[in-house]
Amino acid sequence: MAAEKIPMTVNGKRKIEDELRNLMQVERPSVIKAIEIARGHGDLSENADYSAAKERQSFIEGRIQELNGMLALAQVIDPASVRSDKVVFGAIVGLEEQESGKRVTYQIVGVDEADIKSGKIGITSPIARALIGRREGDEVVVNAPKGQIRYDIIKINYE
User: N or C: at which end does the chain have fewer Cβ atoms within 10 angstroms?
Assistant: First the structure.
């Protein structure tokens, strides 16, 4: 069975590549040097610096594998190239909450790119699932932890 592709935006892929480059070119050599220095201090069984450096090395190597895996499965989608009047991956959606009149804007991005503080919601989030396939003027009902929230879609764009 083939592994499922991971949708991500161009910016999401760039962030992963930047983190991977930093881990491989900066963090990995730094931790190897720290291990060498700690080894020089003698007895490794009671050497806290050595233990901490080995733990950090393990974390770095694991994260490098994780990022490489994500890039291998990446399905990069450039929102600027999307032409749709419906909400699809990459869409920037302006919403108005019916009850309060409060307006919010969200971009639907890959799960690993999600950052609610900067208005980016993961494709698998309840609100993104409610929005997918809808058009401007549609009402959407989001099943949130605090109950149902009704929104009107005011604007859809792809930048």
Answer: N
Burial 8-34 (b: 16+ CB within 10 A, else e): bbebbbeebeeebeebeeebbeebeeb
Beta strands (DSSP E) in the chain are: 6-9, 74-77, 92-97, 103-109, 120-122, 139-144, 147-157
Same domain, 36 and 97: no
Residue 68: give the domain boundaries. 6-77
Query: pLDDT tens-digit profile of 75-104?
Result: 998 888 888 889 999 999 999 999 999 999
One-letter identity of residue 154: I
